[in-house]
Write a structure and sequence with these properties.
The protein is mostly helical. It is 52% helix and 8% strand.
Length: 240
């Protein structure tokens, strides 16, 4: 990207289910697309002929910028998913979020500043993959995806390219949640956990903020489980 980045403040949960899907996009998919694109640019012979409009290198770089935009507690969670010995070090900026009674602990939420064009770049790759799976897109891209799925499948089992893509779509979904009134209420509630702020050890929600939290987290859950009424990953940002 040569233009000055656009800035959009989003709200992200410190949730392993979502972060595992987002983290899983880099390897096997985006790294392999990047390597193939670079090999093709260098005149390599053993490369996949993928659609010219599929920017494998740009998607990998966009994903990395999104990863870097994650607040430190979320990067810590994401980096420790699946580790046999996760790091026990408390990440900078971590806090605890509580319901109004001060006893019920919620999943923490963190503001993050992103360039929505990075989300659109990754979403464009997923749109290509979906058309390839449906048989309406580039044939070699479908073969490329199936090879990746087979390589990452359990021993003795055929890979499921369609499921892999749907997992990637859900991994991108939280970045794309529409900005609604509950988002504004919660961004104000957890502003102290945002970039360049001194985060307190705990934040207790007011009753109004609690209502917003419940609404927002239902939207998060619907997106991560694939039950959202909107197909955010292919449409919400692709025209930004």
């Amino acid at each position: 990207m040569t233009d000055a980045p656009e800035r959009l403040r989003v709200l992200l949960p410190d949730d392993e289910d979502w972060l595992s899907l987002f983290m899983g996009m880099e390897e096997p998919l985006l790294i392999q697309l990047d390597l193939n694109a670079r090999a093709a640019q260098q005149g390599g012979e053993d490369v996949w002929e993928l659609p010219p409009s599929l920017d494998g290198t740009g998607a990998r770089e966009a994903w990395d910028r999104l990863f870097q935009a994650l607040p430190e507690p979320l990067r810590h969670t994401g980096a420790n998913i699946g580790r046999s010995e996760p790091s026990r070090e408390r990440p900078a900026g971590q806090y605890a979020l509580y319901a109004p009674d001060g006893r019920w602990e919620h999943t923490p939420l963190y503001p993050a500043d992103i360039d929505p064009r990075d989300v659109a770049t990754v979403a464009a790759v997923l749109a290509h993959l979906r058309t390839a799976i449906d048989g309406t897109g580039h044939a070699q891209l479908g073969d490329f995806l199936q090879q990746i799925a087979d390589e990452w499948a359990d021993p003795g089992r055929e890979g499921n390219g369609r499921q892999m893509v749907e997992d990637f779509v859900r991994g991108l979904s939280v970045w794309q949640l529409p900005h609604q009134p509950d988002t504004d209420v919660l961004l104000e509630a957890v502003a102290a956990a945002g970039p360049n702020s001194e985060t307190p050890e705990r934040i207790v929600l007011t009753p109004q903020q609690e209502d917003a939290y419940q609404t927002f987290m239902r939207r998060v859950s619907a997106a991560v489980t694939g039950n959202s009424p909107h197909d955010y990953a292919l449409h919400h940002y692709t025209n930004s």
